[in-house]
Amino acid sequence: EVHLVESGGGLVQPGMSLRLSCAASGFAFNSYYMYWVRQAPGKGLERVSHINPHGEITWYADFAKGRFTISRDNHKNTVALQLSSLKTDDTGMYYCAIDEAGTQRGQGTQVTVSS
Is 29 helix (H, G, I), strand (E, B) or coil? Predict the structure, then answer.
């Protein structure tokens, strides 16, 4: 059974940084693309970034380019998302997922950016 647990969210001011982490179990982690998706209040799921199984190929949504960095550790079965220069629009629940649509995702970690 796929099990994903996100952590690292919090309340920060604009311009600050957060590091989100996702611990994965129950599947062959090093064979899967891993995704970060987010959901802002009142909106649908939005893809943020993904990384290929070996970590050489990454993709970012336009709003994430230059500010967010995805990485993974296949020895520890974890995937991380470094958030920098955060904006109020980045507020939302952040999930890691094993599918592009985000249907198989964890419980999420809340990121709130507010002054």
Answer: helix
